[in-house]
Predict the structure.
Amino acid sequence: MLQKMFLIAVALLLLVLQSFPCKAVQDYFEDTIWTKKTDQLDGFYMLSFNQNDSIFVGHGYGMDIFYETKTGNEIKRIEGNMEVFYINNDENFIRLRQDQKAIEIFDSKTFKVIDTLENDTMGISKFIAVSNDKKYLVSAVTNALRIWDISTRKIILTKYIKPEENLIGWGTGHITFNCDNTKIIAAITKKYYNPGDPYKPIYKGGLYVLDFLTLDSLDELPSRGDFKVSNTCKYIAYKTSDKDYGVEIYNIETKKLVNRLFINGPSLTGMEFSPDDKYIVTSNGPDANCLLYWDLNNGLITYKYLDGSYRNFDITSDGKYIITSIGKHLLFYYAKNGGSAVNEEFKFLKTIYPNPATKKAII
């Protein structure tokens, strides 16, 4: 009887520890290669690496700030806070202009605009995707979806929405290409006039798979909320509003649920798959305050980066390092999918950028 009670107690303890994965005492500088204190009082809402991982961009509130990955030293800051997409082996990057009327191409060395993609007077959505081969760009424009050829700068396809009874308008959420660039996955929501209550419009939406050549709908995927497609396009992860199981992971081909992660959905701030799709990393804040590595096979936590409010993050293309932020601090971590990971000598490709930064910790 005592043995049975002991086993039950142990099981309950494990459940409690898993239920509060971020509540523990640990110095959040423990796993860092370097940390930097910035002048961004509101922190960063997005962080992303360039193609060879030698540079990362911190998207602040009013500024995009470029940093050298190896040192964390600031290279350059430019006004605006739109997502940056690197092309041409990092020689250029693309960014939506702040007024959302043009997509600009920058020289990566001078940080000057050298060209723009063709456009008319239509507004462009903030949700933009660049194909994996860096040849095409897709986004929503007023009443349509549009694809550009980046090399020629020309619009190659505009797909207008069909008129519907009571349809007021529509919009896209996140949008992305599949791995071979033959399809586009887009979250689309339509707003309808409600005859029963004009002050309460009706919203209908879904997650659609579109043909790249025609932008016609080919299929519909389960839609649970904000999503992230894995690097091999085998899985799709959703952020849900569930306070217990805040992440659901599905097999894209079969549409079957693969796993649910026991984490607070409303506090989730980011999801990224490891390059081999064996793990998924999540960030939570401000109430949960942690960065977690999960095993996709069993849905269990394999490593925790604890304390502080992890707002966002990105993983290098080789899966060895993570950049994240806690408030105004930037933290560059060794990526660990288990507690016994060995830290290799820190190496990075040579940056193509001039680096006028100083070694001061305060940027």
About this structure: Residues 279 and 329 are 26 Å apart (CA to CA). DSSP finds one helix and 28 strands in the chain.
